[in-house]
């Protein structure tokens, strides 16, 4: 009996796996032309000064509305765009859209873009991004590029990645280490490259009130940032208690649903937070 149940379970997982593979294959195929069909859009999430809570800028986040399957999460489709190579054109489309939006914002407002590690295979990535900024009349000082730690871990490509990041920095753009603390070599990366900001991963922030080790880690990152002279930001801030602690520990920047959810550009421009940034 146990044996037949085992076979049952095996068959169930086998089917589920096939289903998952089919879905991935379909999504990967449907990504082709999704921009042209108008299925892709951007939302913008505010980044705020922890002390004044004023908005300092917005992070652009990509959204895909599939005509039959509805909203697909970036965690699901970005990896598919990466493995099919579509991330290169998609990434530049995101940058173009976000920079066009940011042109209408106040002069000091930052626009943050997420870069996929895969995009660094393109030798002209930095030049392309800087050319886009110039075309939109955006000073590079207003640009932040968020890279996850895996981006700096492309093995033999490591020097190319660091070179591209450096080229962006040389022109005044800032490089942010995103999801800090979750990578394989956080400290090694910090030693080998000068980041302009560290963004502590949401998982630490959401756990820190009831998980002492997470709290210790967040607090240590604040101290680390301070002694390196690198500003730290916390993402995923959802409660007043979290905000209070982060402020007490000296975090200069915060981001999360408490401060504002990612929203379409039209809603951003109508929001009180946006008005507060201008005023
Ligand atoms: P990320 O860059 O770390 O972005 C933060 C994610 O956390 C976003 O999810 C955001 O909507 C979500 N978030 C923000 N505040 C809160 C909060 O208070 N609570 C909770 N529960 N979640 C919060 P999203 O938009 O689903 O994006 C997921 C990831 O997909 C991003 O993580 C980023 O790595 C990637 N991604 C999104 N857009 C792009 C893009 O244009 N290019 C690339 N390469 N990656 C992107
Ligand atoms: Mg990010
Ligand atoms: Mg992040
Ligand atoms: Mg993330």
UniProtKB/TrEMBL annotation:
Keywords: Membrane, Transmembrane, Transmembrane helix. Residues 24-276 form the EAL domain. It comes from the Bacteria. Coiled coil: none annotated. This is EAL domain-containing protein.
